[in-house]
Structures are given as structure tokens and as C-alpha cells.
Design goal:
Order of helices and strands: HHHH
Number of helices: 4
Helix content: over 70%
Largest sheet: none
Distance between the termini: 55 Å
Structural class: mainly alpha
Number of domains: 2
Strand content: under 5%
Length: about 80
């Protein structure tokens, strides 16, 4: 097997891949869901730390801008203004 990572011992990588293959679909999904939630939390925390003067709504719009683009952030901002939220 060709190693996938230059900084991981090939034997460790083989064991990790073997463990991943043995996991049930629900376990894999739970791990992905947990990883995604952690990344969202870290991203929101970074935005908050970099922009402490913004409101929570402004931080939410910035999150959308960073992850989904300017167009989606603009649409969200327009929706929120129209909804008075």
C-alpha cells in the first residue's frame, strides 16, 4: 500500500485505515458530524475574537460570507432586514 501521508508512519497509517474500514456507517457519520460541529464552533470563535465589536447577527453574516460567499451573505442580510430580525 502506498502511504497517503508523508508525516505518518506507514504501519500507523495501515492500522488507522483498517480501523476506519471496520467502523459502521453510523459511527463514521457520527465522527463526521462531530468534526463538522467542532470546525463550525472554531470558526465562529475565531470570527468573534477577531471582531469583538460586531453584534451576533453581524458575526453570523460574516460566518456565512466566509463559508458560503458574498452573494449568500448579502442575501441573508437582505432577508434579515426585510424580516426585521
Amino acid at each position: 500500500m502506498v502511504t497517503q501521508s508523508i508525516d505518518t508512519n506507514p504501519e500507523v497509517e495501515r492500522i488507522l485505515i483498517s480501523l476506519l474500514r471496520k467502523m459502521s456507517i453510523s459511527m463514521k457519520f457520527n465522527q463526521i458530524q462531530s468534526f463538522t460541529a467542532s470546525m463550525i464552533k472554531l470558526s465562529r470563535r475565531a470570527i468573534s475574537r477577531a471582531n469583538p465589536n460586531l453584534s451576533e447577527q453581524e458575526k453570523d453574516i460574516l460566518f456565512v460570507k466566509y463559508h458560503y460567499g458574498n452573494e449568500m451573505a448579502d442575501r441573508l442580510q437582505t432577508f434579515l432586514k426585510q424580516s426585521n430580525l
